[in-house]
Design a protein that fits this description.
The protein is α/β, with parallel strands linked by helices. It has two domains: about 240 residues, Aspartate Aminotransferase, domain 2 (3-Layer(aba) Sandwich); about 120 residues, Aspartate Aminotransferase, domain 1, CATH 3.90.1150. Bound molecules: pyridoxal-5'-phosphate. The site of pyridoxal-5'-phosphate has 14 residues, from helix 3.
Length: about 375
């Protein structure tokens, strides 16, 4: 064991301005999921990402839930989702009684494989079993190949909801990750690159749909003085206090991306000399926010498994985590159909997420490198 303080995977990194903005909310007494700070957060979000409209919600999961509702996803529909992801973007498929079908990712981007998607769409079109929606994921802050995916889906008029929960600040071509799909969802959970403590956004270029999302997120209340409802909604609106934190965080997004990328590069430089260690690739079409630095271990060259490295790091008070367990391996989705090319399974077996928080000091990063090098190569490391 060690007396050194714990280094976490990814913790909130406040700029200091957030407290001032939270103070403004206190002064206005909008201690509620309503008020001008929420409008301000939505406007700042749109200015940052280029989306025409955005609804500030209580989580990324809630944002996906509403996106699927807006698309009319219902009992018995199929929704195709990238296999390698976190369950938050997938559970809402089940909330609507629909069936998730898992499509694998490509080894060069770790995001939905467009070739596999093209093939499956052709097969499904022939058998009349096209999905109601397709959900690619911007994994660990790396955008999927959105234009390709959207143009494939457009041929069959299938809407794309991109799960950009991890991708605030990431770029796809010359635009923000997530822009260009029918809907994009983002998470502002505490572990993300910027946070509202808990929160999410549903974004689109379709203002009417986003206005409807806001209405649905507030119990689908008709605009009359008495409480009148013609359909059921949700209680998913983002509280003002959270929005205030978000306004402050958006101001420093670029700095946060710069620091996460710098941490990634420092790790990459240090691990270059360890045989069998590779860094998550960066797609040539974009710029990842490097939300988490992820490495893979080649078992023919590295004697330890990612799980063993995690345990060794844990003993030194350093938090590492395996790559997301593919959705098709989750017991809850045991009966779901999967179209696998082996990549998600392979990455789960060989991948490891490293501490990547932008508030980490250079010394923290060096400590992780020391701990990891020893775990990977034994005490002779360094
Ligand atoms: C890929 C992905 N999708 C969805 C979510 C769900 O977001 P939230 O935690 O805000 O509900 C997360 C993160 O938590 C995520 O990483």
């Amino acid at each position: 064991m060690t007396d050194e303080p714990r280094i976490f995977l990814s913790v909130p990194h406040m700029s200091g301005r957030e407290q001032e903005l939270v103070g403004e909310v206190f002064d206005s007494n909008f201690i509620a999921p309503a008020g001008p700070m929420i409008d301000r957060f939505e406007a700042a979000f749109c200015a940052t990402t280029g989306h025409r409209a955005a609804a500030a919600l209580s989580s990324g999961t809630g944002a996906m839930d509403i996106a699927l509702r807006l698309l009319g996803v219902e009992q018995g529909d199929d929704v195709w989702v990238a296999d390698l992801t976190f369950i938050g973007g997938v559970s809402p498929v089940r909330y609507h009684g629909a069936n998730p079908v898992f499509l694998d990712v490509s080894a060069d981007t770790w995001t939905l494989d467009p070739a596999l998607l093209a093939n499956e769409l052709e097969i499904a079109a022939r058998s009349g079993s096209l999905p109601k929606a397709v959900i690619p994921v911007d994994l660990y802050g790396q955008s999927c190949d959105l234009d390709q995916i959207v143009s494939l889906c457009d041929r069959y008029r299938i809407p794309v909801v991109v799960d950009s929960a991890e991708a605030m600040g990431a770029r796809y071509k010359d635009r923000h990750a997530g822009k260009g799909a029918k809907f994009a969802i983002y998470s502002f959970n505490g572990n993300k690159i910027i946070t509202t403590s808990g929160g999410g956004v549903l974004a689109s270029d379709d203002d009417e749909m986003i206005a409807r999302a806001r209405y649905l997120s507030q119990q689908a209340r008709q605009p009359v003085a008495h409480y009148e409802h013609t359909e059921t909604g949700y209680n998913y609106r983002m509280p003002s206090l959270c929005a205030a934190v978000g306004v402050g965080q958006l101001e420093v997004l670029e700095e946060r991306v710069r620091r996460r990328r710098e941490i990634f590069s420092t790790y990459a430089g240090a691990f270059e000399k360890i045989p069998g260690v590779s860094m998550m690739p960066e797609a040539e079409y974009g710029t990842s926010n490097r939300w988490l630095t992820v490495i893979t271990l080649d078992p023919t060259e590295v004697e330890v498994t990612p799980a063993e490295v995690c345990l060794k790091a844990e003993a030194q008070n350093v938090e590492c985590r395996p790559v997301w367990k593919p959705m098709h391996q989750q017991p809850v989705f045991e009966t779901a159909r999967v179209v696998s090319n082996g990549t998600s399974d392979d990455l789960f077996t060989r991948g490891l997420c490293l501490p990547s928080g932008s508030a980490m000091s250079d010394q923290d990063v060096q400590r992780v490198i020391g701990v990891l090098s020893e775990a990977l190569m034994g005490p002779q490391a360094g």
